[in-house]
Amino acid sequence: MIYVTCSRDDVHRSIIGGMRFAPFLVAVAVAVATAGCGAGTARVVTDSGATPSPAAAAELACGPSRLSSEDIPTERGAEDRPDDASAALRHAIAGGTPDLAGKRGWLELTRTDDRAHFVWGDAPAYAWDAVVEHGQQGWTITGWGAGCTLRRVVDDEELLEFSIEKVSRDGRTLTLRTLVGVCGTPEPKDRLDPRVMADDDRVEISLAMRPADPEPSPPPGVVAGCPAMGLSATVEAALDQPLGDRAVHDMSVFPYRVALGSSGSHAGSWPDPRVGPAVSCVSEYPDRLAENEHAFDATVTGVHVGPRDEDAAASPATLTLDLHEVFTGPDRPSETMRTWDFMLPEEPQDAVGVRLLVAAGETLDLKGCGYTRPYSAADAEQWREAFGR
Question: CA 373 to CA 375: how far, in whole Å?
Answer without folding.
Answer: 6
